[in-house]
Amino acid sequence: VGAGYAALAEGQLAGTDVRDLARRIAGTARTREDAAERVLAFVADRLRYTGLQFGQSSLVPAAPAEVLRRSYGDCKDLSLLVVALLRSLGHEAHLALLRTRWDTISQDLPGVGEFDHAIVVLPGRRSLWLDPTAPGIPVGQLPPSDQGRLALVTDGRAKALTRTPESASAGP
Predict the structure, then answer these.
(1) pLDDT below 50 — which residues of the chain?
(2) What's the pLDDT tens digit per position in 113-151?
(3) What are phi and psi of 121, to 5 degrees?
(4) What span, in angstroms and rounded, lies between the C-alpha atoms of 100 and 93?
(5) How many Å from the N-terminal Cα to the C-terminal Cα in the chain?
(6) DSSP 8-state class, residue 168
């Protein structure tokens, strides 16, 4: 499922050239965290989060050029745009599908229909998770609805679901 969805997303990225835009957005950013912060700020300032899920668009993210042209997108559209921008800056980034509801999900054979949200992950020694639909959430944190959820990283290599990070509780 992950490899199939990765191929679908990569197909939407084919021919996408957002290098100039990504460089303008990132400016003098030196780290992936700085770049991600600036990309997320651009998305929050310039694009509306709107879900129009009819037919194929209920599963297939819109191409980044289309999202920029129309100035809106749903979670998978905005997330794929963020992936494209970060990759243009030299950062590995992938879509991650997750289920925000707390009911059970089949970990052995999850279908795409079991996921209801898309976010972005930058893998690494310390993976960086981003939700482009949650403005105001600091880079490196996820909104509560995304925390501790089972996610399918669509990097084409995932063999199992990954649990999204949870914020540490504030103690006394």
Answers:
(1) 55, 109, 170-172
(2) 667 899 999 999 999 999 999 999 999 899 999 999 988
(3) -130, 135
(4) 21
(5) 43
(6) P
